[in-house]
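Supplementary Methods. Inverse-folding protocol.

Structures were first reduced to a discrete structure-token string of length 800. This string, shown here, constituted the complete conditioning input.
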């Protein structure tokens, strides 16, 4: 909540005041907390286990229009031990004398006042600087059950959040008070916390440790210095599946190089289907021989990697990390694989018939050499390793017959995977994405990205909203780990028909606003131009981190991306109508359909493709068609069941979505300029809330910028974040009546900036580093910039 009457202060230079400061009294150590006076003698520092978490602390009291500050120049502070265990007293002498009482208990410390009688109109606020490492994140630690999913780009703050998180120490400092407002600062965040003065504490600080490690035993913070940006690429699987051929890779690498390299796409990923013994045809496994290509890649994997690199792309390769379906390879090395109690080695499934015994040192050495060869000799820069959860679980089940039965599954899995990661690192900057296939948390600290959910499209299945719901399921499970432990991968983006425009935009907006791993997976050469253009709007991926640090229970309809840059702060709101459109069967409404279909197929002796299964149970017309087929059977086996199909008497109506500024973490007292990204339309200056109606499966992306009293940028058409990627600076010069904007352009790609005039009259636009075409449309100036080469340009918009 916003505290309108106060201004936050920072102790700018304690060193300059040190000479005027009396000798420091000894620090007091209540519980794990240490309280001491700062070097200036007028502020308080709080440390937990010798780690400074709170500095510059002072108390501001407002009574009858007068303000008293414990940090004022005339105030004198004296530190003393309290009468009770865990209590420290700071005596304040000045215009009014009172005591700041610090009471520590376990990991919490309360700040209370003694010497002021509670009465109406008296308010007390604690102002302090909070420290949370080099990449502090303001966040929520607990699910409030509201409709809001929050993300941050830069050091942004939201009124809904109560904590500051340090991912390197895996700890958060929570601030508990009636009212608390956080604002970014140079060293972290400042907080103003308190409210009406009564007998209760003004506020309480609570350190919570193990936010991630208590849930995820292998939690390790992502090294953002080494991996500063989220990969963007193309993946063969969700269009070609295991039927992919050499010519498909060549065709698509040429298309993505032409259309997306200037925007920031790097990788071309050859997914499953290339291996001997793992071509995936005729229902066979997709994981095969780790070092040999099949007849669909006649020139071999080094040749195709070289072709990809010649297009200006980085080659990427899929492998089933510990699965192998090649019979000949197994017979040559039977001791390298697991066996059951009967000596049977065929323990695998889709990822390979045979499962590696990764406790066997010979097998481990072979794999290390193979990955080093794929990196150095074949030349791959990115590896997607699949089947991790499954093979780890099979090792645990059959460990008693493994080469080394004394070692537990997690330990040997991580040791071997770590050695493979080292082999990939035989050359710099080789990326490793783990595919469990679902949420392979055992790979944390080893992989740089991980799949969070299931496949969004299956073989023989056209893209549908089923894929969107699968991506949302992945995000509920693991989005809270994205950009903190690794880059989250909710699976690919597919935008081809039969998806309609609303559905394609919604899927694109999900990836663009969440900032996760972005892999495209259509036939890029055949994709319609409007869908190609849609994809460009989310490349490159913006640096975005979730503010909700817990697994989610529901798909929230309001996404609030809070963006903070040195020159401006704004919010990008994603509004989503997740309702069924009457043509789909959401998984939650038909959870038993998959089991019924599988049982029916067994009774009828049918082997159905994975994608066909999904399409049959997720599309109303397909399910009805299956039921009509079952009804028409002359001899029905006992136990056959019709699929449950929801009935809609009328099409589901649109839903009105309301962005109430106070309820989504914005300042309810401010006016905001609202701009629709996909429609490129200014929606007005708004106070309090904004609402709109959306049909099922549709979405809207709005920029919400605090209104100033001068011309300012309201939106761009370049990137979905409307500035987080392309905007470098924005300055208003009141003397010259000029708005100067620095923006990064893509070669030969027009970028339009929309500027709110704030009542000023547009005069002209001029640019350095680009051509510019400026025009005025009511309250908005449109400035279209074009450059023959990628790079920064600066535009000056002059007003009268």
């Amino acid at each position: 909540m916003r505290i309108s009457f106060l201004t936050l202060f920072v102790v700018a230079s304690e060193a300059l005041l040190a000479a005027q400061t009396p000798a420091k009294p000894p620090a007091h150590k209540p519980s794990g907390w240490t309280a001491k006076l700062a070097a200036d003698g007028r502020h308080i520092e709080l440390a937990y286990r010798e780690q400074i978490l709170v500095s510059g602390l002072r108390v501001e009291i407002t009574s009858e229009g007068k303000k008293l500050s414990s940090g004022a120049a005339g105030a004198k502070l004296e530190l003393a031990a309290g009468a009770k265990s865990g209590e420290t007293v700071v005596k304040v002498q000045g215009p009014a004398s009172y005591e700041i009482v610090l009471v520590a208990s376990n990991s919490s410390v309360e700040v209370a006042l003694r010497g002021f009688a509670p009465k109406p109109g008296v308010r007390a606020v604690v102002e302090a600087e909070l420290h949370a490492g080099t990449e502090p994140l303001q966040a929520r630690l607990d699910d409030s059950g509201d409709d809001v999913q929050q993300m941050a780009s830069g050091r942004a703050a939201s009124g809904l959040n109560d904590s500051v998180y340090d991912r390197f120490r895996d700890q958060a400092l929570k601030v508990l008070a009636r009212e608390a407002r956080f604002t970014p600062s140079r060293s972290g965040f400042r907080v103003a916390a308190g409210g009406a003065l009564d007998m209760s504490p003004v506020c309480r600080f609570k350190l919570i440790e193990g936010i991630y490690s208590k849930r995820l035993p292998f939690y390790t913070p992502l090294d953002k210095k080494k991996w500063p940006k989220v990969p963007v690429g193309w993946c063969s699987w969700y269009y070609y599946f295991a039927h992919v051929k050499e010519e498909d890779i060549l065709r698509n690498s040429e298309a993505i190089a032409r259309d997306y390299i200037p925007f920031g796409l790097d990788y071309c990923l050859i997914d499953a289907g290339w291996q001997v013994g793992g071509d995936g045809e005729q229902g066979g496994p997709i994981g095969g021989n780790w070092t040999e290509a099949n007849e669909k890649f006649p020139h071999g994997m080094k040749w195709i990697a070289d072709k990809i690199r010649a297009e200006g792309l980085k080659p990427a390769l899929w492998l089933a990390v510990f699965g192998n379906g090649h019979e000949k390879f197994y017979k040559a090395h039977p001791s390298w694989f697991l066996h059951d109690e009967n000596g049977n080695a065929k323990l695998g499934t889709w990822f390979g018939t045979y499962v590696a015994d990764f406790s066997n040192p010979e097998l481990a050495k072979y794999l290390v050499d193979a990955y080093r060869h794929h990196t150095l000799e074949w030349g791959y820069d990115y590896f997607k390793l699949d089947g991790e959860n499954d093979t780890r679980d099979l090792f645990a089940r059959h460990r008693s017959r493994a080469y080394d039965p004394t070692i537990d599954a997690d330990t040997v899995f991580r040791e071997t995977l770590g050695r493979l990661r080292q082999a990939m690192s035989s050359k710099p900057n080789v990326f490793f994405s783990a595919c469990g296939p679902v949420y392979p948390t055992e790979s944390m600290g080893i992989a740089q990205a991980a799949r969070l959910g299931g496949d969004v499209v299956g073989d023989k299945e056209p893209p549908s909203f089923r894929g969107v719901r699968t991506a949302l399921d992945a995000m509920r499970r693991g989005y809270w780990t994205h950009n903190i432990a690794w880059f989250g991968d909710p699976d690919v983006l597919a935008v081809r028909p039969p998806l309609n425009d609303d559905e394609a935009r919604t899927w694109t907006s999900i990836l663009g606003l969440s900032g996760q791993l972005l892999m495209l997976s259509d036939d890029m050469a055949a994709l319609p131009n409007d869908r190609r253009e849609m994809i460009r709007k989310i490349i490159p991926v913006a640096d975005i981190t979730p503010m909700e640090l817990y697994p989610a229970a529901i798909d929230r309809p309001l996404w609030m991306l809070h963006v903070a840059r040195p020159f401006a702060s704004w919010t990008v709101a994603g509004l989503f109508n997740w309702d069924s459109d009457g043509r789909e069967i959401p998984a939650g409404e038909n959870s038993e359909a998959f089991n019924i279909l599988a049982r029916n197929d067994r009774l009828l002796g049918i082997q159905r493709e994975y994608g066909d299964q999904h399409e049959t149970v997720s599309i109303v017309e397909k399910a009805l068609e299956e039921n009509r087929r079952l009804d028409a059977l002359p001899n029905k086996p006992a136990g056959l069941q019709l699929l449950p199909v929801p009935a809609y008497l009328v099409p589901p109506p649109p839903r009105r979505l309301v962005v109430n500024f106070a309820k989504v973490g914005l300042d309810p007292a401010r006016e905001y300029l609202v701009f629709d990204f996909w429609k490129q339309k200014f929606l007005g200056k708004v106070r309090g809330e904004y609402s709109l109606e959306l049909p099922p499966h549709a979405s809207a992306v709005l920029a919400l910028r605090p209104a100033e009293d001068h011309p300012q940028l309201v939106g761009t058409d370049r990137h979905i974040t409307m500035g987080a990627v392309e905007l470098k600076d924005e300055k208003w010069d009141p003397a010259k009546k000029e708005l100067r904007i620095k923006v990064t352009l893509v070669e030969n790609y027009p970028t339009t900036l929309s500027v709110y005039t704030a009542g000023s009259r547009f005069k002209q636009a001029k640019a350095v580093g680009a051509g510019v075409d400026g025009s005025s449309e009511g309250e908005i100036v449109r400035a279209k910039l074009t450059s023959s080469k990628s790079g920064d340009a600066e535009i000056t918009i002059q007003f009268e």
